[in-house]
Amino acid sequence: MATVRFSFALDSERDAALIAWLEAQDNKSEAIRAALSAAQGNGPAATLADVLTAIEGLGARLAGLQVTAATAPVEEDPELAAALDSLGL
């Protein structure tokens, strides 16, 4: 199988995030290959482990969230209420 090489340029300011990401990759060719495949919709599907990791991360972010009730009644806008009522939901 023949090797095909592509060359492209990145702008040091506009593409700083891409450059930092690419420099952090151990195998730059594989990382670019995976990114291009994912952009085409051919990337690896999310695994159950990926979903669990995302849920755990969300749980950790929500753990410190505090919800409080309004201390004073909120006046309802009659025009808005009528518009919502007309939706029939």
Element-level helix/strand string:
HHHH
The multimeric state of the shown protein is single chain
Radius of gyration: 24 Å
Helix tally? 4
The percent of residues in helical segments reads 40-55%
Helix/strand structural class: mainly alpha
The first-to-last residue Cα distance is 61 Å
Shape: elongated
Q: Report low-confidence residues grouped into runs of 5 or more.
A: none
Number of separate strands: 0
Largest sheet: none
Beta-strand percentage? under 5%
The mean pLDDT is 87
Description:
The chain has 89 residues and is mostly helical. The chain has a domain at 10-59. It has helices spanning 16-23, 28-39, 48-62, 78-85. The protein starts with 15 loop residues before the first helix and ends with a helix. The mean pLDDT is 87.
Walk me through the topology.
Blueprint: H1 16-23, H2 28-39, H3 48-62, H4 78-85
Which short descriptors sum up this protein?
89 residues, mainly alpha
Quick rundown:
The protein is mainly alpha-helical and 89 residues long.
